[in-house]
Amino acid sequence: MTITNSNIVSLNNLKLLLNNTVNFLNNDAIYREEFYKNNSGIKLEEIIFDTLKHQAIKTQFNNKIKLISGLKFPDIVIDTIYGLEVKSSQSERLETTGNSIVETNRDQKVEHIFLLFCKLVSPITFICKPYQDCLTDIRVTHSPRYIINMNSNINDTIFTKINISYDEFRNLKYPVEKIKEYYKKQLGDNEYLWWLDKNKTAPIKLIDLTKSTIHKYTEYILTCIVLFPEILGKSAKNKYKRVINYLLSEFGIISSNIRDIFSAGGKFDYTINGYNFINIPRVYRLIISNIKIFKKILLQNKSYVYNMQDISNNEVILKWIDKVCVDQSNIYKEAQKLLNYLLLL
């Protein structure tokens, strides 16, 4: 929207209307606390809508306020280009989970959105701020959603953290990718992002890994080896934690014996084209038996593992092998030679 004097006046008038509405609601709640405690969700939206309409009489917004609600964002549209989203919490904290970051259900004509928040415990409190000034973080339910914190200031917002304005962010083709970049930099040991895809959906049902078909079982295990190469190394605390989290969040898969899948079976010797490889951990047999599938999965996931696209296939393989073989005992040196031989053929 092009900024003009009339736009500024209109926005200032809207702020005055919202301020008057909040003052009325806070004063009314002093005398009708139980009324507000018993009205949340859509009923609260209707109360705020009626109050807003009443406060708008004799202003430029009279008869220009619509309650949209339902699956649309924002809940209330004012004079076509302004919006008011209503949120509430039945706790002392002025925080709640907000809307999806992709805003697929947004009214595209709305250019400025404010958030009116109600704390529905004593003392009942209404607060209104610009929408983007309340969004401090991202949480994932069935999709990435904003975290609303009414105590925040502009320096606390997620947009300040990722160095982009709210309007620029919401107009990105793939906003999840921008968030992914930021959170990947914050990851600690044994942490990863499971909601990486642009159109990620969470699994609805749980699946026992041992009940999968042989083809699917093999694909799941090979993918885990690619993404979490530490499971091929020697025993360590939390060695399988990322694998368990990944299988559950990505596919809804559970397993009571994940450790045995990767560590049981001892060692074996392997000969190929006259080369002898001695005392190889038995988990490598699955890679050897499915080397073409494994190599395909590895190359398909190079951006996931290395967060880059500009890297040759051989470089991907070598970097992955280096991650596997941080433990340079004789056993793993022998395994490294075998991996080099098989994957770089």
Describe the structure.
By secondary structure, the chain is an alpha+beta fold. It has two domains: 5-155, no CATH class; 207-343, no CATH class. 42% of the residues lie in helices and 18% in strands. It contains 14 helices and twelve strands. The protein has helices at residues 5-31, 33-37, 41-55, 158-161, 166-170, 175-186, 214-227, 241-251, 258-263, 284-289, 291-300, 302-306, 313-324, 330-343; strands spanning 65-67, 76-78, 82-89, 95-100, 112-119, 125-130, 135-140, 144-149, 207-208, 253-254, 267-272, 275-281. The longest helix is centred in the first third of the chain and has 27 residues, at 5-31.
Fraction of helical residues: 40-55%
Q: Which strand order does the major sheet show?
A: 1-2-3-5-6
Compute the CA-based radius of gyration.
28 Å
Query: How would you state the average pLDDT, rounded?
Result: 82
Total tally of structural domains: 2
Distance between the termini: 58 Å
Could you list the spans in which at least 5 consecutive residues all have pLDDT below 50?
197-202
Q: N-to-C SSE series?
A: HHHEEEEEEEEHHHEHHEHEEHHHHH
**Number of DSSP E strands:** 12
The description of the largest β-sheet is: 5 strands, mixed
Give the percentage of residues in beta strands.
Answer: 15-25%
Outline:
elongated
Structural class: alpha+beta
- How many distinct helices? 14
